[in-house]
Amino acid sequence: MKAIAYYQSLPIDHADSLQDIELPAPTPGARDLLVEVRAISVNPVDTKIRRNVQPENGQAKVLGWDVAGVVKAVGSEVSLFQPGDEVFYAGALTRPGGNAELHLVDERIVGKRPQGLDFAQSAALPLTAITAWELLFDRLGITEGRADQGQSLLVVGAAGGVGSILVQLARQLTGLTVIGTASRPETQAWVRELGAHHVIDHSQPLAAELKRIGIDSVTHVASLTQTDQHLEQLVEALAPQGKLALIDDPAGLDVLKLKRKSISLHWEFMYTRSMFETRDMIEQHKLLDRVSELIDAGVLKTTVGEHFGRIDAANLKRAHALLESGKAKGKIVLEGF
């Protein structure tokens, strides 16, 4: 089967940073689906692993943790899907990625893809939807409905992949006042289109930006990027006993800054369930099915920002380069081999 992989960690502009290769087709385990990959999307985790994780013993490492495709075969203990089902999922970091014609995935982290979207639009959603859902409802403890009316959520980096779905979830499913941050006119317009009540500029002091729109403090913060750079401003912006959730990898984080206001800190990593095969691992199957239903009901929409064409090394290099530039809007998708 065709696949895109790398043999050593290299800058994305190096000729061998990603390569078109051939690999044997995989065989499903007991709870695995064998999926024919129709479309993928690219995430910051792909670029981080390519830069920092050397493949073992000269082996090829396949990236890619967002897939939409068709089930070709199932393992002996599979009960949720059957061949022919159209699915979408984010896979597991402990297994080969989905930048290949065929891919194995545990059925407990797979959902039925939205029928109102095509494969590329569907592939944009799984990783970011799971991350945003878990961050909002599991880590920050927000409840669906209007119980949180009067409270507020500041989303730092709202125009990116996770921010693009988080803004929608918070606006459509909760009573929160949603404030998104974006620094360029086009990304600010995108965040407004997604449903944010307010949009502010994270290249300016955040507390001052909030005051400019008449908000003295917020009860919840989702910091999706550059948390270490924004931490003091986030602490200033948070109300006493507020909640701070993050997904990025700050070089350092002085948590003592949170003490005076009794701010609680929450980390979201959507691969925890699959990495440790937690007892509630199947919750990711359930939430993906729910996201699919919300898409088909018109409550949520896909977050595709760019379609880069077919799935090959050249187009994946372009996608990695755009993500590394920090200027991506929404999700980058690729489709077909």
UniProtKB/TrEMBL annotation:
PROSITE patterns the record matches: QOR_ZETA_CRYSTAL (PS01162)
Outline the subunit composition: Homotetramer.
Protein name, entry field: Zinc-type alcohol dehydrogenase-like protein
What family does the entry list?
Belongs to the zinc-containing alcohol dehydrogenase family. Quinone oxidoreductase subfamily.
Q: Which domain of life is it from?
A: Bacteria
* InterPro entries membership: ADH-like_N (IPR013154), ADH_Zn_typ-1 (IPR014182), ER (IPR020843), GroES-like_sf (IPR011032), NAD(P)-bd_dom_sf (IPR036291), Quin_OxRdtase/zeta-crystal_CS (IPR002364), Zinc-ADH_QOR/CCCR (IPR051603)
Instruction: Identify the NCBIfam families for this entry.
Output: adh_fam_1
Any one GO MF term held by the record is: zinc ion binding
Q: Which organism is this protein's natural source?
A: Pseudomonas tohonis
Q: Where in the cell is it found?
A: Cytoplasm
Listed GO CC annotations:
cytoplasm
